[in-house]
Amino acid sequence: MLDKNKSCSTDRGESLLTEAKKGKARGMAVSLQDTDVTIIGAGPYGLSAVSHLLDAGIDARIFGRPMEFWAKKMPAGMLLRSPRPASTISDPHSQFTLEAYESANNVAPVKRVPLETFVDYGRWFVKQVGCNLDQRNIKTITKNNSAFKVVLEDGTQFSTCRVVVAAGVGNFRRVPPPFSALSAKACSHCYDGRKFGELGRRVAVIGAGQSALEYAALLSEAGVEVEVIARVPELRWIGMHPKLHRLGLISNMLYSKHDIGPIGISRLVAYPHVLYHTPLRLRDRIRTRAVRSAGAPWLISRLSQVKITTGRKVTFAGETGDDVKLTLDDGSERRVDHVLLGTGYSVNIAKYEFLSPDLIQAIQQFGGYPKVGPGFHSSVSGLHFIGAPAARSFGPLLNFVTGTEFASKELASHLFQNRN
Predict the structure, then answer these.
(1) According to the model, what pLDDT value does residue 268 have?
(2) Are residues 225 and 126 in the same domain?
(3) SS3 341
(4) Same domain, 409 and 275
(5) pLDDT tens digits for 41-67?
(6) Alpha-carbon Rg of the chain, whole angstroms?
(7) Is 90 helix (H, G, I), strand (E, B) or coil?
């Protein structure tokens, strides 16, 4: 059982970095003690995984800055789309829930969890777990016979028997072709974490999902002139049939606690092992339907001052002086200061720069997703992927924080049973 009074050493990375610099100054090769399992990424999936592995008695080390993507790449003022029950990071004994954080820190519970609360919760979670957290980035990972060689950004290296990639989706931003030639001044992605003041007074938001629509609302509330341009014929909203969620046992049969997807699909999503054994073509249809572009209904009133253009796509985007010129497929044009892409992400593990080219080539994939089996093991022995990269194998539950429970239990069970 985890010792909730034992604090995770979040400053260990800084102290190790200091020692590494001293060693390099003396011309020494710096190394760390080898470990059984190395986890890359300190977001919800990485933090949850390390808590479960340590509880199972597995030697695990985690690398990354806690909740960095959420803290630096998401807009200030954002609210989590997921309901409260689906916003807890899993630990093996359900000690460190969102409610436990709120109680311990005198935070008043609210229906829609603010981004700032969730980031603070994740960082509090770190402090409750007795783990070896190193905040340095990993530069490269290569396979060396039966083990992996890990080299950190400062040259420090060590060996590990297994690697668990929990690095999130920050590397996977989807940039449609019309926008790929625009400069960073003219165009950015919702996952870039740009400040509102950097985008100008006229912004075109591309997309119809939660990120696009919430960014549009926040920009409008900040006094920016905003237009949402979306290819879908009309915007879609999640949970527009609340009565179906209040039918007691019937609702429990139709929807899972994770609240991902519509009637029926929601229930399927709750059984990743069933989806794993479902033919890929059907599994993809279920995954696509469960996570299609849609917004939370509480955004509707907040978009009242935002121009919404649906059923249209941008066919050309170019820079003209300080303006960005957009041409739509109906021939109409727009002049804006900035284009903000709420176009989601496309998983492509080749974009994980820490994985060596040889490793990337050895990993069996389908469309950029790694093929993973029980325990999230890939075709490379000892290499595991959790979170969004595993969603094409086990379903869309792995795209959400609520999937940390299944992922961490499955991973810990597999590694415990297959320990050396």
Answers:
(1) 84
(2) no
(3) strand
(4) no
(5) 999 999 999 999 999 999 999 999 999
(6) 22
(7) coil
